[in-house]
Amino acid sequence: MNNQADTIEILTDASSDWQEWLEEFEAAARRTPEMRMRYAFIKTYKPVLDDATYRSFDSMEDYRRWCEDNLPSWLGYGRV
Amino acid sequence: MGAFEYRQAQEINDAFNRNGVRYLFIGKSGAVLLGFPDTTQDAHVFVERSPANGSAIAAALRDLGFSLTQEQTAEIERGKDFVQLKNGPFDLDLVFAPDGIERFEDAWQRHVDVEGFPVCHPDDIIASKAAANRARDRESLPRLKAFRDYWIKQKTMR
Predict the structure, then answer these.
(1) How is domain B6-152 classified at the CATH fold level?
(2) How far is B22 from chain A (nearest CA, A)?
């Protein structure tokens, strides 16, 4: 959960990005939720992942392992 | 199928409310509703695991136009941890047990209402992404945490 140390670390580590991010956050805050979603959602084909109409997993661990074993690594679903 | 749209989020909200589903938008789709400017492809909802909610979810999904087999319906009613649906008018992921969040009730107590959409608190979105520890989340987490700080500051200033 949020704590001060965490916040300070973020602002310090990302200080070079902070101003740019702040401008983006302020611009987004002026948009309606509808506009935010219009700008955010994109659709591209994801190999394997998009090739079945239904999948279910008993545990999140099963799902994570399935992603690592079956999806191309460049999709980024593998754990670090 | 095109990108997920606001209208479809409204349809989810309407159908889930009509059927009494307890749910929250989570993941980047939730963050976007809160105002996080980023791109995403997937809509995720965190749904409470209970027999009554499972039945309500299945009914709501049928209302929305998802075609579920008896077996799939039973799995949703049972509340498998993660269900990926691509058999309806849009793609939707049901998450019954997101990484990093202990109980639905805890997240519900902290949730944020965005124009009628129930959305996880940014801290819970961050907690789930941090616990998932995926490469794609690692990249977006610093910016998401910065957004959380900005969002909280704006909220306290109002």
Answers:
(1) Beta Polymerase; domain 2 (3.30.460)
(2) 20
